[in-house]
Amino acid sequence: MPRLTPIHYGKFAKFLEYIGCQFVRQRGSHMIYRRSDLNRPIVFLASKQLSTIVITNNLRTLNISKEKYLEILEKIK
Asked: pTM score > 0.90 for this model?
């Protein structure tokens, strides 16, 4: 199974838009995305590299497996 690696926040934002999330606002350096079926927003720091912990926590909120995430990342390259 491939491992998660840190990625640029812009690529993660493209991933979120691909799966139907919408950019709501930016507060300081935190980007906030929403989707109608989620109970809480997706929040991440607009820094050069998102850590795997941030990615994993947001995937848990989205209810998306690591395998599905990596598959979608390959599609949006």
From this structure: no
